[in-house]
Write a structure and sequence with these properties.
The structure is a homodimer of 336-residue chains. With 336 residues, chain A is α/β, with parallel strands linked by helices. Helix content of chain A is 46%, strand content 16%. Chain A folds into two domains: 1-121 and 287-318, 3-Layer(aba) Sandwich (Isopropylmalate Dehydrogenase), CATH 3.40.718; 122-281, 3-Layer(aba) Sandwich (Isopropylmalate Dehydrogenase), CATH 3.40.718. The first copy, chain A, has twelve helices and eleven strands. Chain A has an eleven-stranded mixed sheet with strand order 3-2-1-4-11-10-5-6-9-7-8, with helices on both faces. Chains A and B meet through helix 8, helix 9 and helix 10 of A and helix 8, helix 9 and helix 10 of B.
Chain lengths: 336, 336
């Protein structure tokens, strides 16, 4: 199995990508990693990290999309950037998947440009796993498609269901539609029409109906379907609230303790590690014909290795085949 | 000063409303409260709670909008419901403000029906105060207007600014537009057009630009402007994340402590009380000609009293006059 890695992507440049490669190769004996990036920077790092040369390939890409660069401009001005080279490899079948911690917008734009979507998919969406009081849920889209059509959301429901079954081992996932109230008829036209699509599709037995913001972490459903604008705000808000509350817990609960301060502080650090949203690894861009995992820009080597392993697992589990088989059960719908 | 109270509103019926009335009267010597609701239920409760009879008036309303009732249906089927009677009192000038812990959608629908908006306001919006790492911020709209126009969001910026100045005592509030990334040009058409309106208005020196979900609790800005769909999800998500994390803190940090478990548990309870979103009192529906405070359905007497006091303060500070004066500085804009 061959996975391409955008070796220049992320806030910390090639180093965590190279070390993540070594860790992922150790964990996945069937894996070959194609590192795409600046040869002059990658070769010495690969040698220094003692990455087995027979299990990596290096493809030179002379350009890098910066983290704050506008995707549309990047695609025009830097066609040879590492992330776009990864997509070319995927589009030509040279690799089965790709992983990038680079500019998320550019990763998505590269994917949209290849137009290599799965059969029956109108627009790919980014899925993210979140912790809940009952375990885990998957939420999508979290930013690929900020103004979707109802049909897109229906397809995200299918993709989320298959993902929850295959990756989260939930036999009969329950799907919820993010809204401002539980009652049918709530919200704007997009969610009203989407509600109707779910209710009349073969997913109806999996469809919980509308959910509210507080339902996500209560674990009311296993799959949260939402537009990419709302989903992106949700994702980043969770990060912010988590940070804020843990700060308050440290100063107002842990710091004043006379005896157990050290112990409590250690437990808090562990909790942050366990429930921090970045601990849930990369986020798959579902709906493309191939595997694409988008990592947090601040990913360390462990996060990169984790994402490479998830990409390999996605390939092994043939998630895309399952998504297509299920999408084919939907009534044919156009992109509106 | 006369404030109407929807005495039937809320999950717990008239009791917390009656007790909240007593507390608010004690705290506000200039206040008269007009209780609107079922006379037969209210009279004995007012007597039992020893509410001073010379400072309350009772207006009988034979109907109640249930918490899960659809607002549009309620307005048609129950024109004499307590919340709609409150709006009639406001519209005729019989009271200066109203407070309700009832069905939020019905409160908003009642307000929209009176069409008694402030000069220059196209659509009212609900504002909520949230704690941040730097103090407090105000976010609006959190649910009155789920599919707004850019002009509405610009007006929310003005209202939020005046609110932050008057109620949060922030001299020069910084305004942020909720988006999926900081860079100009991010997001869908609504936020792109709104960005441009802010950038070219007299608010431009107060305009921070786009913010992301994680910025809210970091306190990056003092006023968060967003559509009512996103804002409502944000509000309820915060509640859910807070609940979730405090649950984890209790079981994983506090419970295992050998010596200080009790002390830490007490501090956690205090923290929950201090930072819980319901502790920030009622949410004003800004933009109506009068004062309207919407309370959480689960409000206790303290929350009702708090909301009545805030309504009285809004009247005293003449927030609406300030909003109108500032809205008049905007270039005239139509509702698109």
């Amino acid at each position: 199995m061959r996975i391409a890695l955008d070796a220049m992507g992320g806030d910390h440049g090639p180093t965590p990508n190279v070390h993540g490669t070594r860790l992922a190769l150790e964990a996945n004996p069937d894996l070959t990693i194609v590192l795409v990036g600046d040869q002059a920077q990658l070769e010495p790092r690969l040698a220094a990290a003692a990455v087995p040369a027979n299990r990596v390939e290096l493809i030179h890409a002379p350009q890098v999309v910066e983290m704050r660069e506008k995707p549309a401009e990047a695609i025009r001005r830097k066609p040879e950037a590492s992330i776009f080279r990864c997509w070319q490899l995927l589009a030509t079948g040279a690799v089965e998947g790709l992983v990038s911690a680079g500019n998320t917008g550019a990763v998505v734009a590269g994917g949209l440009k290849t137009r290599k979507f799965l059969h029956c998919v109108h627009r790919p969406g980014i899925a993210t796993v979140m912790p809940t009081a009952k375990g885990r849920c998957v939420i999508l889209d979290v930013g690929a498609n900020v103004f979707p059509k109802p049909r897109h959301l229906l397809e995200y429901g299918v993709m989320g269901k298959v993902f929850a079954q295959s990756m989260l081992h939930i036999d009969r996932p329950l799907l919820g539609l993010m809204n401002v109230g539980e009652e049918e008829g709530k919200g704007h036209e997009l969610v009203q029409k989407t509600y109707e699509l779910f209710r009349t599709s073969h997913l109806k037995d999996h469809f919980y109906g509308n959910i509210e913001g507080r339902d996500i972490h209560r674990g009311t459903v296993d799959v949260v379907v939402t537009d990419g604008f709302t989903g992106n705000v949700v994702l980043k808000l969770c990060e912010g609230v988590f940070e804020f509350i843990m700060g308050m817990v440290k100063s107002e609960v842990i710091h004043p303790l006379p005896h157990d301060r050290e112990l409590a502080a250690q437990a808090a650090v562990q909790l942050v590690g366990k429930y921090h949203y970045s601990a849930f690894g990369g986020a798959p861009l579902l709906g493309v014909d191939g595997v694409c995992i988008i990592c947090h820009g601040s990913s360390n080597e462990r996060a990169i290795a984790n994402a490479l392993s998830v990409a390999a697992l996605d390939c092994r589990l043939k998630i895309n085949d399952k998504i297509v088989a299920e999408l084919e059960q939907l009534p044919s719908g156009n992109d509106d």
